[in-house]
Amino acid sequence: RRLQHKNLPPGPTPLPVIGNLTCMRRNNVFLTFRELRVKYGDVFTLHIGNIVTVVFNGYATLREAFVQHGDSFSDRPNIFIFKDISKHHGIAGSSGDLWKEHRTFALKTLREFGFGKRGLESKIIEEIEAYLPCLEEKNGEPFNIHALTQTSVSNVICSIVFGQRFDYKDERFTKLMEMFDANFKLMNPILNFFPFLQHIPGDPFKAKQILRNADTVYAFIWELVQEHDNSMDDTYSRDYIDAYLKEKKERQSDQSNTFTDFQMLRSIGDLFSAGTETTTTSIRWAVLFLLYNPDVKERMVAEIHDVVGTSRFPNLGDKENMPYSEAVVTEVIRKANVAPLGVPHSCKTDVEFRGYTIPKGAVLLLNIDSVLFDPVEFPDPEKFDPTRFLNENGKFFGREVFAAFSVGRRACLGETLARMELFLYLTTILQRFDLVPEHADRLPSLEGVLGVTHTPRPYNVRLVSRQ
Ligand code: HEM
């Protein structure tokens, strides 16, 4: 290893074959990374199997690497999740010109369908209107909000991408959501570093199962694409699929056209999965944090009742007068730490960085956790304290040092949607329901599980109607 890569950032000595795999054995590996940062500094190297992995820590380092060196450090590595699932296509899994072209198209088209505008707000509120009666039906009995919330949040992105929402009891959609969820749980990061594991007979690492589940999701999307193709009007786009099909037709005579069916399926799959999982997980964390912090919950409820009252739903126009609620949403995003290690990047040539040589093809991890839990920027970082996002006049202020959505060219393209959804879902839930723990003497665990995202363990809560 030393002969092959001479000038790597420092890091623990690797063992033969497995490298530094033992560092990854803890459930939440980002906790280990906090210790490694203290020992090796803001940029350190791990060898996982034979893959060189460089971890970048702290806001200044992340900006230097992924903004200033953005041209070099914005590819995706050749690992299971991108190589075998997205096959280096789509928005999240592609690199180079293919990625630039399709990310630009996605941003432009999502804006046309209301990203950051009132049109999108009404879609979210419409979905919340369908969600509330399902919560009401639980009658204050303990239940796990996960499945209902996931279907509801997913419907928002479905209405933009597919131009339709699905009934909460729609069997096919429920099955799809379950499969989708299973993949987030089954995805063992180890598959990314030891590709041979996917070929072990009996599929103990569930690689084949993950690929089968992914194929089912793509088949579902494909059916909807075909329905669109048969019914679309060339002069008007009803939704993202129509817009894509139109673009594909317009470019069909172009030799270098990258607007293909395969690329469309992967792009839509990315919007669908990224748009569902992260926001749902954040809402699950939010409820948990509010159970632990009844004072925060009561202050937020008081603000909602003062500004909105109870006779109408909260809307985004209220946000300006609800700085505390906006601060709660931002603190939820910080403390939930949904993507603590971001999404892996790579570089296609050797790159000099702070005197080290980052080798071509290395896996680059943006340690977002190191920013969101930086005790200098966010004192007492484990504390759930929304007031860190309020200024001395009680007004909300977003902090520049906030990397939850990553930094640089690949930064999350759904941040606006996620913030809109979190504000509207959380304020509406609290306007209508009190959140009460299942057991009066015991709260659910705050310990998360790190898979593709950092999720809370399953828990039940009572939603007691305020009416
Ligand atoms: C709280 C919610 C969310 C969080 C914390 C979050 C966080 C992230 C992070 C950390 C990345 C990786 C960026 C990188 O590679 O450096 C990302 C990428 C991405 N996110 Fe989000 N996200 C959220 C919600 C959403 C939503 C609602 C959408 C729906 C449109 C979305 C769509 C995407 C896409 C398509 C990418 C890939 C971007 C690219 O590779 O160019 N995200 N997100």
Textual characterization of the structure:
- There is one protein chain.
- By secondary structure, the chain is mostly helical.
- The protein contains 15 helices and nine strands.
- The chain has helices at residues 29-40, 59-68, 80-85, 96-112, 118-137, 146-161, 171-186, 190-193, 207-231, 240-250, 261-292, 294-307, 323-336, 368-372, 415-432; strands at 43-48, 51-57, 351-353, 356-358, 363-367, 433-437, 448-450, 454-456, 461-465.
- A three-stranded mixed sheet has the order 1-2-5, with helices on both faces. Strands 3-4 form a two-stranded antiparallel sheet. Strands 6-9 form a two-stranded antiparallel sheet.
- The chain is globular and about 70 Å long.
- The site of protoporphyrin IX containing FE has 26 residues, from helix 11 and helix 15.
Key attributes of the depicted protein:
467 residues; 47% helix; binds protoporphyrin IX containing FE; Cytochrome_P450_fam2
Q: Estimate percent helicity.
A: 40-55%
Q: What small ligands are held by the chains?
A: protoporphyrin IX containing FE
In what order do the strands lie side by side in the largest sheet? 1-2-5
Termini separation comes to: 66 Å
**What's the alpha carbon Rg, rounded to whole Å?**
22 Å
Cofactor: heme
Binding site for heme: 412
GO molecular function, one term: oxidoreductase activity, acting on paired donors, with incorporation or reduction of molecular oxygen, reduced flavin or flavoprotein as one donor, and incorporation of one atom of oxygen
GO biological process, one term: organic acid metabolic process
